[in-house]
Each structure stands twice: as C-alpha cells, then as structure tokens.
Amino acid sequence: MEFHGLRALLRPNLTSSHLIPSLPSGFLPSSCISSPHVKVLKNSVQSGLCCGSPRVFSTRIGLVPGSSKNSRVRVSASMGTSTQVREGVELKVYETVKQLGEDLAPYVADISKSSIDARGVFSIVLSGGSLISTMGKLVEEPFLGKIDWSQWHVFWADERVVPLEHPDSNYKLALDGLLSKVPIPPANVHALNDKLKPREAAEDYESVLKQLADKKVLPLDAGGNYPRFDLILLGMGPDGHLASLFPNHPLVSKTDTWVASIEDSPKPPPERITLTLPVINAAENVAFVATGSGKADKLKLVFGGDLPFGEVPAKLVSPVNGKLVWFADKDAVSKL
Ligand SMILES: O=C1O[C@H](COP(=O)(O)O)[C@@H](O)[C@H](O)[C@H]1O
C-alpha cells in the first residue's frame, strides 16, 4: 500500500492540529516536570545552559512521528531534559539507565492511578527485551504499596511462540522481573496460549482482547475499530523494530487484525505474535524505552527526515489520539 494512503488509514483523525507547527526555537517548551532527573527546558536546550550540562545532541529533522511532510523542526536533547518534540510527543533523556528507571516508575504509576480513577481498571501492555529490567523501581516502595495492582490487566505487545516457561518467553521475562513480585490477580495476566501454533495463537489472543472489549475492560477507539489500551510500553530493537514489527516486513502495514502472527522473524525465535501498528497507535499512552549505543543509529532516523515506509518501524508509532513519550539514555541519543 502506498505510504500516504496507509498513513491516513492509520491516523484517521489526523488534522492540521496534529502536525508540527513551525517552531522558531526548534522545540516546544512546556512547563517543568517535578522529576529529580528531568527538566523541561525553556528555549535553552540548544545552548546546554540548563541543568549544567555541556553536552547537547541535536538533529535537523523533516518528519517526526506523525508529522506533516513539510514540517521542519530541530530536536535537541541534553542530559536531564524533556523536550516536547511536537504536541503529544516527548523525548526524555537520562544520564544513566538507573535514572531512567526512577522516572519510568512514577510515569507508569500516574497513568495507572488516572486510569483506575476514571474507569476502574488499568490496561498495560508490556514488551520483552531490555524494557523489563528498567521497570524494577515499580516493585519497590512507594510504588509497590501505592499502586492498586488488583485493577491491573496485563497484556503483551508481542510474544514469542514458545512454552511460557521457556527462557525466550516475554511472559517469563516479565513474570520473573515484575509480575511475580506484585499482587496482580492471575486472571488479569493475559498471556499467550502456548499450546497453539502462531496463527491460531494470534487469533486466540485477539479473541481474548475482544472478550475484554465486550466486558468494557478494554474500551475501543473513537472509530470503534481497535482496542484503546491505557499504556503500551515498547522497546526498539537496534534495527528499529518494535514489538515484532520488523523493518520492511509485510506485517508493518497490516491493519485488518488486532493481532498478527509471524513465522519468519529476523530476530530469533522466528515464530511470534504481535499487536499490529494501528492497535499500538490507538492507545491512550505509548512509551518507548531505548537505552544503549546500539539504538543510536535508528533513534536518529526516528527523529530524522523522511524514510521509505517501513524501513524503521519505530518511526511509525504515533498515537492517533494519545501521547507518546520516548525514555532514552545518553548513549541512545548520542547521534541526535
Ligand atoms: O525481540 C524483541 O525485541 C524488542 C526490542 O528488545 P530490546 O532488548 O532491544 O529492547 C522487544 O521490545 C520485543 O518485545 C521483543 O520481542
């Protein structure tokens, strides 16, 4: 499918207000965030005057996630800053992975609280890979005691089709690092049916989501087409993939299902299931966690100029009616 046609399909509500306005200073300053590690800068990002940091990363970009083709904006990131790249898209940069984890925990806890206050439940989608190790603070006080874990519903952005106790299982990774340490009702942890082949497993996972949509645990988006998760947490692979949506793979442009299967994943194991891109873009909140120099080349492309569709799948994440936050460490932004 041709790029603009697909983008319109993925972003049916796209209006000019979703596009980057011309920004004289190259970024949209916003009010300060009460975080020990992150400050939103006031027009001083590029000089590196804030936070006493001499190190400034910046890149001239043409098309940030979801922007219009003609938008031009400079993304700058220095240590300890939060830059509003455009309306609804924020980039937070940390000196260390530990500091990133200390900010990720209150971010998740705040969305959990506001979702439970508003709807009585919190739907959170996890990924595998390096993400889980950055979530460790959540199982410590004050978060452990403050979060209403009984209302959490946990899902996966992607899962490897292996037994749930297999070391490659994203479920096992989350169970060992997070879920076994918090009192989430087991019935609210929505894992892959590991007795099924990839295609059947994807269909089964989609039917679980649809049952939860019928029970109003998962609301649908404005068009009634896709589930609207409260929070989707994603990692980005060194090749720019997210979930199990790999560069230039046909699954990147799949829009007719909520969950899809893949049997030729370029990253082992080859058999997986994954949420499709429009489901990710229907979420209320999406956060990427990208750490390490291995992510730097692709992060530069995510915030850089136009690319052929699907070359860097992470670039296509742009919630239609939600917020996107990138949590990155200094190594990941080293090429911005
Ligand atoms: O295979 C996968 O990789 C991505 C990225 O992992 P990372 O270790 O580079 O952060 C992950 O988000 C996905 O869930 C997983 O299945």
Automatic annotation (TrEMBL):
Domain Glucosamine/galactosamine-6-phosphate isomerase: 97-326
Chain coiled-coil ranges: none
Entry's EC annotation: 3.1.1.31
One Gene Ontology term of the molecular function aspect: 6-phosphogluconolactonase activity
UniProt keyword list: Hydrolase
Gene3D superfamilies xref list: 3.40.50.1360
Pfam family, one: Glucosamine_iso
Pathway: Carbohydrate degradation; pentose phosphate pathway; D-ribulose 5-phosphate from D-glucose 6-phosphate (oxidative stage): step 2/3
First-tier enzyme category under EC: hydrolase
Keyword match Hydrolase: yes
Keyword set includes Ligase: no
Reaction(s) the record says it catalyses: 6-phospho-D-glucono-1,5-lactone + H2O = 6-phospho-D-gluconate + H(+)
NCBIfam families referenced in this protein's UniProt entry, alphabetically: pgl
Annotated family: Belongs to the glucosamine/galactosamine-6-phosphate isomerase family. 6-phosphogluconolactonase subfamily.
Protein name in UniProt: 6-phosphogluconolactonase
